């Protein structure tokens, strides 16, 4: 993950899923630790440059795949189907416990990209005492209305088609909008959120929208001018669902040092993103 060999540990959940957590430790044991949560179908290794850049600013960094992706076991196609609930209420508590055990003096910050950002916010809303702050990038609601009139039909038809196929097949094989295969339960939960604007994961007893509304954990919401999948309108809508949280917004446009402003391409500018995120974490300010 960097020229400095990362430490590695294996985390096993109560239902037998195994995760590989890698971290880069700062020299200062009290320095904030940032846990990076990947986007849908992305692997932890895709965030190597971001992890290195954050570490270079003096922070500790941890990376981990989402369930059924990357190094997580069982692999996609070999797992028992699951949705948001398992990731939020089984996986993240176990992964966060491992990070807390390794960095007992450090405040924990979550950094989530797209789906990873949704998970970061919902986890922080449900377990606020464990999280010092949340940064999200390319993370907006997928509620169809938030895309704006020109994209209402596209959002409604394509996302609900993904949900329908996922219900029937028990998985999303890849295709429209989401080219990579995905667990069926995740896509069903995702499509329900898109239709209703509510986070209602199958099997949960938690009222996540209420928890979000009451959350007071600080949030940095980063939007990208060229992001079609998570446009600023969707980020703004999600921010409006967190009225009690101190939220700072950083919109990255052509006036920014970030050259690549696509939903995924921003990773090519990891040093600039890392500098802005570290500024917010350590000083509480956002780039101009």
Structure description:
The chain is α/β, with parallel strands linked by helices and 288 residues long. The protein has one domain (7-142, 204-283): Rossmann fold, CATH 3.40.50. The protein is 35% helix and 17% strand. The protein has 8 helices and 10 strands. The chain has helices at 48-56, 84-102, 115-126, 152-169, 184-196, 208-214, 232-240, 270-283; strands at residues 7-12, 18-24, 33-37, 60-63, 108-113, 133-137, 171-172, 182-183, 219-224, 247-252. An 8-stranded mixed sheet has the order 1-2-4-3-5-6-9-10, sandwiched between helices. It is globular and about 50 Å long.
User: What's the CATH class, please?
Assistant: Alpha Beta
Give the strand content: 15-25%
Number of domains: 1
User: The CATH topology is what?
Assistant: Rossmann fold
Unreliable parts: none
What is the 3D shape? globular
Strand order of the largest sheet: 1-2-4-3-5-6-9-10
Measured between the Cα atoms of the first and last residue, the distance is 30 Å
Mean pLDDT: 96
Cα Rg: 18 Å
Order of helices and strands: EEEHEHEHEHEEHHEHEH
Number of strands: 10
Instruction: Report the sheet with the most strands, covering strand number, pairing sense and barrel closure.
Output: 8 strands, mixed
Report the helical percentage: 25-40%
Question: What is the topology?
Answer:
Layout: E1 7-12, E2 18-24, E3 33-37, H1 48-56, E4 60-63, H2 84-102, E5 108-113, H3 115-126, E6 133-137, H4 152-169, E7 171-172, E8 182-183, H5 184-196, H6 208-214, E9 219-224, H7 232-240, E10 247-252, H8 270-283
Parallel strand pairs: 3-4, 3-5, 5-6, 6-9, 9-10
Antiparallel strand pairs: 1-2, 2-4, 7-8
